[in-house]
Design a protein that fits this description.
This protein is of the alpha+beta class.
């Protein structure tokens, strides 16, 4: 009776609605479950098809082994007397392990058709620190701000994970890769060194220079395996510059290979600061000048030490295409310290996917150290991918890089300095950017290795390379409003107006399409400006990739010798860059202390015809476009001051009348009263400049010539009482003065209290 009472009227309606809702929800859940089953079934079907095709290919390769190999030589591991290096899996072990895990996954998938089975062959991350001491398992370091003009940055912490297990070759490899990229991993390009290899030195001529190439005679064992996976044809690779390849993806690999178990107690291990005993300080000071850093301490640190993984946390989950281009890593060096050179090479070998690392090219720019000759040849002979090119005479960094690029076999050129340590996962993010757009030039985040204690330090993520006048490179934080406007994450690529120049990757064909480096540049200096302006103004882009990080020893002094005067060499290089790329803005370069370079008798910057024609051929943008679109926060006024020139004593303005100067009542509307004070320090009206006449203590109007010292006047160059004067450069102590009688101009001895010698422009843009 009570139930009937509540089900009368509106209660009956509410009950009906409630029951109907329950029934509808049950139907909805059933439909969702059916849909999920269909999806899982489809995924399982596709997975079984891929695995069936893979085993079919493996069977075909077993029947026709010569189709998969360029040379029928046996693996080194199959030779009599060969022993595996302790704690390191060879390629056969790695391939067998992957196939075993795949078979397990396939068996379980077939036994359960109602859902998609995605088994992972062990969680590598779970074993990263099994044998590492707790005090070393996480190394915290504050971020270093590389901005050289203003200070201040937010301190950040770096958490380090290191693999010290003696029987694991790969550190931090995401397990999904083992299933998604099995075919490519089983057929990685890998070579083995046979016992008693001979090192053969042959002469080659590269880019017009006589060089000596150290080659390895490995009796065919260094022939590379042909990949079993068929990649898309190059003709289908790109439309314009954007990649349209149909390629699978995987999470970025975090490789860290070591030949033997790492000693957690080794000096400097895990990128920690290293110290020496007090009685060793004298030895540190004695050997400092060998590289202008702590060479003595560097030689105590393992050549394959672990360093902290300083990438932003989400970088480890970044998706990378499976068919990235291969790269040739080029190191150029002259009298480099043994330990840092080896550490640089080992960091590339240990932390680069073997299938992407085509080769490492060491270009010896005519070193004089004995240990960089036969000893280096013998050491590098154990690494088939390492080649040594020896220049017959000192060429400098620029031409040494051109020599390395000329013989490189990889699709991408990766230039590195010879005193670096590449971090885990450093290479794939760089190659990914080139894969997506061949005109992108990616750079890693350059982190700091202390020159004193060799500790590895994290730097601020949001920094980019810039320049200040007169073409001085520096680091600057990305503007906060730009970060906010673009909602930038700490893993996003950063547009970089100017690269540091020492570490970057570039598509090999694109590098030569751009004309490579200006071959007229000498030794070192300005090459980073030249290639940066060229890339941006001719259709490319430079990016800093936060997920790629490389440590670099920053030294307080350049240890390299210049065949000629160092300062003159750098100035000459910068003048070539200014003349070719800066257009009318080259006056800002010369006006910041380089006016002496305008005198051709002082310095010869060489012939620029080829470079100017190259710019026309590439149809490059103007430097004004570069400032507006690439570096808009750069202050670059074309003149230091302009407008009316007011004389405080006469209370009138300077005016040009029929090729002569006089004074008139100030009137902004009259063009005859408008003058510029240029970066060349000229008082200029259109094509005419005011020049003093020494003998008559007067002045004259001449056609402007930036190279003429007599047309230059000092004005507002200091905060002294003479700042408002126009004092001549060629006549010390003589200033431009307005005459009260006749309202003419004359030269008189400078007097800080003379109002007739004080001048004021309407607008000032720079001191």
């Amino acid at each position: 009776m009570k139930v009937r009472k509540y089900l009368r009227g509106s209660g009956r309606v509410l009950a009906f609605v409630f029951v109907a809702s329950i029934i509808w929800l049950l139907f909805d859940m059933a439909a969702l479950r059916i849909s999920l089953s269909d999806v899982s079934g489809q995924q399982l079907k596709e997975r079984l098809i891929r695995e069936r095709e893979f085993y079919k290919k493996q069977s075909m390769q077993a029947l026709h082994p010569r189709r998969s190999f360029t040379h029928p030589a046996r693996r080194a591991a199959d030779l009599p007397g060969h022993q595996k290096a302790p704690g390191r899996l060879n390629d056969g072990d790695e391939g067998q392990r992957v196939k075993d895990e795949l078979r397990k996954s396939l068996h379980l998938a077939k036994s359960n058709h109602s859902k998609f089975v995605d088994l992972k062959p062990g969680d590598a991350a779970a074993h990263e620190n099994d044998n590492a001491p707790k005090q070393n398992s996480s190394v915290k370091k504050e971020a270093v701000n590389l901005y050289i003009y203003t200070g201040g940055t937010t301190a950040q912490k770096a958490v380090h994970k290191v693999d010290s297990k003696p029987n694991e070759k790969v550190k931090g490899v995401e397990d999904e890769i083992l299933l998604k990229s099995t075919e490519s991993r089983l057929t990685q390009t890998t070579t083995h060194r046979l016992p008693n290899q001979d090192v053969k030195v042959v002469n080659e001529k590269v880019a017009g220079m006589q060089v000596k190439v150290t080659d390895k005679n490995v009796l065919g064992a260094n022939k590379q395996l042909k990949p079993a996976v068929n990649h898309p044809a190059e003709g289908n690779a790109r439309v314009g510059t954007l990649a349209v390849k149909k390629s699978g993806v995987h999470t970025v690999l975090s490789l860290d290979v070591t030949n033997s178990p790492r000693d957690p107690k080794a000096v400097g291990q895990f990128g920690q600061a290293a110290v020496v005993a007090v009685h060793e300080n004298s030895e540190v000071e004695k050997r400092w000048n060998e590289g202008h850093f702590n060479v003595y301490l560097s030689e105590k640190i393992p050549v394959d030490r672990a360093i902290p993984d300083t990438r932003p946390r989400k970088c480890a989950q970044s998706l990378i295409h499976d068919d990235l281009p291969s790269t040739s890593v080029i190191f150029c060096f002259v009298d480099e310290v043994w330990s840092t050179l080896l550490r640089s090479v080992h960091s590339v070998l240990n932390r680069s996917p073997p299938n992407l690392l085509k080769e490492i090219i060491l270009v010896d720019d005519f070193s004089t150290k004995d240990y960089l000759k036969k000893q280096l040849d013998d050491y590098m002979s154990q690494f088939p991918k390492v080649r040594i090119i020896r220049l017959k005479e000192r060429q400098g960094l620029i031409r040494a890089r051109l020599a390395g690029a000329a013989v490189a076999k990889g699709e991408v050129l990766t230039f590195l300095d010879s005193h670096v340590e590449c971090n885990v996962g450093w290479l794939e993010p760089l190659l990914e950017r080139v894969y997506l757009d061949r005109k992108k030039v990616p750079c890693p985040v350059i982190e700091v290795i202390s020159d004193k204690d060799l500790s590895y330090m994290l730097v601020d993520n949001f920094q980019r390379g810039i320049f200040k006048w007169p073409l001085v490179f520096g680091w600057s934080p990305v503007p906060a409003d730009y970060i906010k406007k673009n909602n930038m994450k700490d893993t996003d690529p950063i547009k970089c107006p100017v690269m540091a120049g020492g570490l970057f990757s570039i598509d090999k064909k694109y590098f030569f399409e751009l004309g490579s480096y200006d071959p007229g540049l000498d030794v070192w200096g300005g090459e980073n400006m030249e290639i940066s302006f060229k890339i941006w103004m001719c259709g490319g882009e430079i990016e800093i990739i936060p997920c790629s990080r490389v440590g670099h020893i920053f030294r307080g002094q350049n240890p390299y010798k210049f065949p000629k005067n160092r300062q003159k060499t750098v100035e000459r290089n910068l003048a070539r860059v200014a003349e070719v790329w800066l257009d009318e803005y080259k006056d800002l370069f010369y006006g910041h202390g380089y006016t002496h370079l305008l005198n051709k008798k002082v310095i010869d910057i060489g012939n620029l015809t080829e470079q100017i024609e190259l710019r026309k051929h590439l149809k490059c943008q103007s430097f004004r476009w570069y400032l507006d679109n690439v570096y808009p926060d750069m202050n670059a006024p074309l003149v230091k001051a302009d407008g009316l020139v007011y004389n405080r004593g006469l209370r009138k303005c300077l005016a040009l009348q029929r090729d002569s100067l006089s004074f008139e009542t100030c009137d902004l509307s009259k063009q005859s009263q408008h003058f510029n004070y240029t970066w060349m320090r000229n008082i200029r009206h259109r094509e005419l400049c005011i020049a003093p006449q020494v003998q008559s203590n007067s002045f004259a109007l001449q056609l402007c010539d930036s190279a003429k010292n007599e047309q230059r006047w000092l004005h507002k160059s200091s905060i002294s009482p003479m700042a408002e004067h126009f004092s001549t450069e060629i006549l010390r102590g003589m200033c431009l003065e307005g005459k009260l009688e006749g309202q003419a101009l004359q030269l008189r001895a400078c007097d800080s209290n003379n109002l007739f010698q004080k001048w004021q422009f309407t607008h000032y843009y720079a001191q």
